[in-house]
């Protein structure tokens, strides 16, 4: 459960970082890329938020405590 959460968090971060880069790197006249970057950023943030909520609601309490406080086995 934690491994999939980490993978989805990394994927969401990559998508959000790409969206942020597109949003800031495009010129002011290219509104299409700015909108696309903003949409990618929101989608990436929602993937990260969904992965954390999935761990919170479907994970066991031991997994959640290990994830929140970075505890070792």
UniProtKB/TrEMBL annotation:
Keyword Transmembrane belongs to the record: yes
Highest taxon in the source lineage: Bacteria
Transmembrane segments: 6-23, 35-57
UniProt keyword list: Membrane, Transmembrane, Transmembrane helix
Name under which the protein is recorded: Phosphocarrier protein HPr domain protein
Protein's organism: Enterococcus malodoratus ATCC 43197
């Amino acid at each position: 459960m934690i491994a999939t959460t980490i993978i989805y968090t990394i994927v969401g971060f990559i998508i959000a970082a790409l969206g942020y880069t597109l949003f800031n790197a495009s010129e002011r006249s290219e509104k299409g890329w700015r909108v696309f970057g903003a949409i990618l950023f929101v989608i990436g943030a929602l993937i990260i938020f969904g992965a954390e909520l999935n761990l919170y609601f479907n994970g066991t309490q031991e997994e959640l405590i290990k994830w929140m406080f970075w505890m070792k086995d």
